[in-house]
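Need residues for this backbone.
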């Protein structure tokens, strides 16, 4: 994605429709998703019989449920939710609120200069303070940040946290924040020039119980190789569609540390970040436990550097899955009061089972299909494919409008999309299962 010069955000076109309350949209999406699942069950009875003759009925039901029925239901629910979603307009398009950007950095000397440059170039009417916490770097990160801050005229506070761990660095920075709202930003993440303006505009346009807004994070190094090309579509379509769906139901499950806005007092109220590998996941779910809501702002875009080596990609995604398990243990759906939050968090209980089924059964079944054995992978498993394409079309339309509004251009990446559609789940599910195993056995946690 590339940026054209454009200092004015043109909001995506609004739609004149009859207002439908969020809870009605939820039940409409549920009804259609369940209808699709019932249809899938009805036509898959021959498949169930064939597989039962090989592995027995209980295991056959488990396999088909978690590689076809439940994934199909979830994709249908997301698709209908996206069709029903209408992002409300900003009440104040150009706020001037004084805010802070908090950056926890460890060995980011080569990247933090560019990050600060993009902060300095923000098209924002309010004052921006920056707090940089050096988490015991060994490459001169603090010196590089000080030099860049002086060069760009930023109002920066520099802190040092010797104890390794991102949560410790963030909590050290939290103590120094003096503004009502603050953002977290990764040291390798670049903000679009209207990012601060639009994320602040969203929270000021939201009800008082909205304590955080997740920014719209996309991949910026997608041209490195085929792995980053696939990740571009994962961020652009997959992650963004889930966040938009969750935002519709007022429970974005992760106000990610890479770029999100928070109410300072609420973060302090819930005790800041826990010493866990998924500190941003656990923090968000603690908000839900206290009755707060979390929104998502598509117009607040930041570009982050995604892993371009498979081992780094594996570490990142296994951390994410471990973080999800940590969140379930600390603030699972049974600890929530809002119905929509209970449902959204409940989906995450199903995800490990889906990953397990794809890893243990679907991938071997795919190999068998090449030899003419269609017990697990066959024509019926293709039923989810049209739904995935539908989600792609819907999200691409949404994202195209967002990019047009911000003066961005969607670059062609057909090879990446083809590999994303056909192979991403095959790669991702085993990595996720590895992350679950690491968390169950409490293996060593690594920040990066």
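Answer:
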């Amino acid at each position: 994605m590339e940026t054209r010069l454009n200092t004015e955000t043109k909001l995506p076109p609004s739609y004149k429709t009859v207002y439908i309350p969020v809870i009605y949209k939820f039940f409409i999406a549920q009804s259609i998703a369940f209808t699709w699942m019932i249809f899938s069950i009805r036509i898959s009875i021959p498949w169930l019989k064939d597989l039962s003759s090989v592995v027995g009925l209980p295991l056959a039901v488990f396999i088909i449920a978690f590689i076809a029925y439940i994934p199909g239901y979830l994709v249908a629910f997301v698709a209908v939710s996206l069709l029903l979603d209408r992002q409300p307009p900003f009440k104040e398009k150009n706020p001037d609120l004084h805010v802070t950007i908090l950056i926890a950095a460890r060995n980011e000397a080569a990247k933090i200069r560019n990050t600060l440059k993009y902060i300095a170039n923000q098209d924002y009417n309010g004052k921006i303070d920056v707090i940089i916490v050096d988490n015991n770097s060994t490459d001169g990160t603090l010196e590089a940040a000080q030099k860049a801050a002086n060069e760009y005229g930023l109002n920066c506070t520099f802190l040092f946290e010797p104890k390794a761990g991102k949560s410790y660095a963030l909590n050290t920075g939290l103590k120094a924040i003096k503004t009502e709202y603050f953002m977290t930003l990764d040291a390798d993440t670049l903000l679009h020039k209207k990012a601060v303006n639009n994320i602040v505009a969203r929270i000021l346009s939201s009800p008082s119980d909205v304590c955080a807004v997740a920014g719209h994070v996309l991949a910026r190094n997608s041209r490195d190789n085929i792995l980053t090309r696939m990740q571009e579509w994962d961020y652009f379509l997959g992650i963004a569609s889930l966040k938009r769906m969750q935002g519709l139901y007022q429970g974005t499950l992760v106000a990610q540390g890479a770029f999100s806005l928070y109410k300072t007092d609420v973060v302090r109220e819930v005790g800041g970040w826990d010493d866990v590998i998924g500190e941003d996941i656990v923090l968000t779910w603690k908000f839900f436990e206290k009755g707060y809501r979390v929104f998502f702002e598509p117009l607040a875009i930041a570009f982050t550097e995604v892993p371009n080596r498979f081992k780094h990609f594996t570490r990142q995604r296994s951390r994410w899955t471990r973080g999800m398990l940590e969140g379930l243990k600390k603030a699972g759906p049974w600890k929530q009061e809002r119905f929509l939050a209970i449902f959204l968090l409940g989906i995450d209980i199903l995800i490990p089972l889906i990953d397990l089924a794809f890893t243990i059964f679907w991938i071997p079944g795919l190999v068998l299909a090449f030899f003419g054995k269609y017990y697990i992978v066959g024509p019926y498993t293709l039923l989810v494919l049209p739904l995935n394409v539908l989600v792609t079309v819907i999200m691409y339309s949404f994202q195209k409008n967002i990019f047009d509004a911000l003066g961005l251009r969607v670059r062609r990446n057909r090879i990446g999309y083809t590999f994303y559609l056909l192979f991403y789940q095959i790669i991702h599910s085993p990595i996720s299962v590895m992350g679950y195993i690491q968390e169950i056995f409490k293996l060593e946690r690594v920040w990066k």
